[in-house]
């Protein structure tokens, strides 16, 4: 996920938004952060010649909500498979939008509607919005009625605001060390996230004498 050339603090918060959202959303699926890393690295780097910066969170290169298709029709084993793919697509959209939304919050837009409007205006045509809109369009392959775009924006705004201290902590480290591997980023943000739920031990049945 790339961000257009911008001043360094803005880029740091943008990329931190992507990274924190990826960690938070991955935790909804898995109870071990390191077994299934949310991304490989998060970086900000100078654009040669003009002094501005770009950023990137390295993870999956491409996501398609259509899944495997035959003659443009998705193939799913059952409805549960379809629902899981649908939820994954919506999480992917939120991760795309979290960077621009964190950028808006850094600029002082804290109302979800204002945050969404500023994020859209400032990032029109960016890869973040292009990817989010592409996946949103593909949701028609997964469900007869898509959730409203505004509902997804509101979910993104809540995620960014609820985890703002984690985003700020990661952005502060990016301003010092411009490249962080996943384990480094996780160590920074983990104290700012709710604790992981304790694993439920397997049920023990009494053995016959």
UniProtKB/TrEMBL annotation:
- Protein name according to UniProt: Peptidase M41 domain-containing protein
- Kindly give the Gene3D superfamilies that the UniProt entry links to this protein: Peptidase M41
> Which organism does this record belong to?
Mesorhizobium ciceri
User: What's a single GO BP term from this record?
Assistant: proteolysis
A Gene Ontology molecular function term of the record: metalloendopeptidase activity
